[in-house]
Fold this protein.
Amino acid sequence: MTTQSPTQYSGISSYAFGSIVGRIRNFADPADVIKVFDDDLTDVIALVASGGTTFLSPILGRLGGIICTSGTTRSHLAIVSREYGVPCLLAVDLHGWRPADGDRVRLASSPVGEGFLEQLFDSEVSPDPESSTGSTDAPATGGTGPIRAVTAADPVGRPYTTVTSGDEGTDWWNYIRTIGDDIACKPFPSSVTSATVGALCAQSLSDTDLNDLILHMGRAFKPEMTRRSGFTSEIFPMMPYMSLSVIEDFHTYPQRVRTIDAALPAEEIGRRLRQQPGLVSPLWIWMVGYHYLCGRELLIHMGRIAPDSDIDDVRTVVDFWRRLSLAHRGDGTLDYKDAGFTNRYLPDTTVADLRAQQKRLDATTRKELQTLNAALSGYCFMYFTDSRVGICDNGPYPAGDHTATLVRDFLSLDSGQFGYRWARDRDPGFTGVTLVLTFATNVFTEFEINDWGTTFTEPDQFLTTVTDAAVIGHRADGRSEVLPPETWAELTRAVGTEHLALYQQFSTADRNDRILAATEMYSFGLRPFARVAGVEDRIDWRISERTLALLPDPLGDDDQAGAIFGGALVAHDRPSAFSSFG
Amino acid sequence: MNTGVVAQRERLLGDPDYEPTLAEWNDLIAEGGRAYKSELARRTVFESELFGMNTYIIMSMMEDYLRVPDRIRTISRYATPEALVRQGLPIGSKRSFINLAAMPLHYLTGRELYVDLGENSLDQGLEDQLEVLRFWRRATIAMRTDGVLFNMDADPADSSHIVDAELLSTIVSQLQPNDPSTTATVRKFAARLTAYAFLENCDARTAVCDTGPYDLGDHTFLALRELCCDADGDFPWLNGIRETLPEHNFVIAYRLPGTVRMDNNVWGTAWFTPSDYLSDVLATRIFAVRDGSLRGLDPDEVVELTSHIRTAHRTLYARLAETNPEERNLYATQMYSWKLKSWARLAGCIDEIDWSISPSIADSYQRFRNPDVALGLIGGIFVPADRDSCFRPIGGAQ
């Protein structure tokens, strides 16, 4: 007799690994392990009954993931899976389900250590890996055709479809309304190009359009909350500040956006900021729309507003973000995910100039580059209160010879574009640094820059594969200069000094001050755009009383804030993180 | 607390020549037992597909109860605990902190097992028990640099310190800054070696010893992880495999920011918050330990060693897979009950001691091989329902 079984199962995660997909393989006996010694196991999710580590140990590091129906985070299996960085769920209750070999599943972890196992069904649209050269040439227009996909040979290719209604605008909205796969990936219509951007920006959003766009954004966002990212920080209470800042965005963005848009339209701001590297982070653009909708969702979850509250305000902010993003990206896509996890906004001439500044790396200069990258990354994380706001990758820009160039911006290193009070005295000598990094594409089987501008590759040692590089320093007066390799170590030291000063500053602040600082960090998100529009001084950037009323109760408490944040955005059955209003 | 009590406590924790009273011994036993129970309650069960863990835990700890006192007496005729601790480096050998911390915990578990099986009474065996406890206490006083006997009592709580300032400085001076490539190389090596060390030691943690955090005074700290494989030929199941490894004893040093928290439990297992601490490592180095000295390894050598360990791991796994369960159980029982071999080797009396498993213990396999029986018996000691400590008082005390 069969009974109805849930398709999602819960357990605990050995660490915050985000979300992964793979196929089940049952392991019950050492012979099962020995049988696969030489197999490719990257797609394999091992299903085991016990939390001992020796059983899977010879293959553990090569597995895509592990599901154990017993154990705790203190089990040896959990320990070694963390060492290897292999996603592992323990104590999963399968409710009598016996997964068969080959069953497709998704493993996910929450920021607070919960683990989720989801049974997937092979009904999603998936690219045909046989039908493409993985080319990044301009796609053919018109007619029907197969979906062109990324392949291992050219993992920086973009999946797109040649299917069209005959009208690019309609094709774009059909794309928005398409559900996509389990992480909301779907092939972008090749009919939509840079020529379509103007018409898209000129459109006004009907209620139906707005609703569909909100749902699209929510579907894109929800899996990103669990795959690959963990929200942990010892200095900055992340759940309280993330909750407060997105709610503050909901409270304040409509008026701020109207002020900015009236002075300079979003599409003009986007156009101006795409000409050179280091002017803006695409993540700042992403935050405008997504953080605002997160705030809306939290307040709906808390019962403070209804899904159909303030629709005109919602339309104002979402449309501003839409036009800003379309104009900055320039190809009709809104996010990295739409473009196969790429963002090629820089003009070809700019990319060519950047490439021309590069020098071939040797062992010494590669090490110094890696050290500089690590120093800048650490400093930016501290500057932006343990968030990614200060670092953003764009590209990769193919060179046509099986190489491509990634451009990595480290922004706002001095007192910066946001006017943070803790950064007033910071000055490592530059207001920003851009790394220009060329690599061979055939080294990687996967290459992804996510919607937050973070690059993930398989194999994962991206910087060790860079063959040619340039380091560009941007000064506060607008000048930029190429920094020769002999200066990199000195810059590393200067950044390290600034980092230590910030660290000492924050480590002596009390918890409430750190929460408020981090809330300011995120909620000043519109400030760079206000500056471009010339209206920065006309906006009151202080955190609103409406938001402060939520501190300390309920958002000052880590667990309560985490429950609200997770409950609103992730811990539900809706495919979209964001609620529709109609 | 008056100064007399403070002075008494200091003597208990730090004076090797002080003989604790029975009440003080029982306080120490209770304290260790409470910490042990707390950890085991969180762990819930011991699992292994290859090794019946609960079975071999029972057998090895009963073996400890039978054999450890006399083995310690033999060792003590050759060298004092202090002299044994002073030999060589405090890190990077089988004579490790985790080995020493396990000594009383395993022995006293054996005592509880015999009592629960009705074969002993609680007031029996005091002299043997004191022999073990005295050795452990004196060796711990000599080994630790922080003046306590248990990690819970150190400053900060749940930490352990066995490296002095000079050795710490030597290690720190050889650290290399972290970067994505280094993280990847170290992570792979550490994970592969940890997995192999678990397999060598039959799914027990005994070869993986964490100490720290060692505060470096600049809002960073050092975490040390020792991974020590069988270099001396103690484990017969490694014959032909151990010889393929160019090095056997390693120390991995991680310099971490103060934003990462390290908790070291009662038996020397560290937990880091955030759990993915490797991403936060500021500087690191892998050292090989041989003949009492540390040698920092270059990345190329680490990569090569990783490959050797992978091969050894596969070979050992295949070998164990072909071994029958009773034989595997014997290996595991031996592994756990041979903790004193490293001490005896340093004392120069390893050949004076009969290391064979007692016949009564070997015969008990048939009795304890049923997983439910084993779990029921060991569960009643590790997470007892009627007391807050795993261990009941010695010497007839209540």
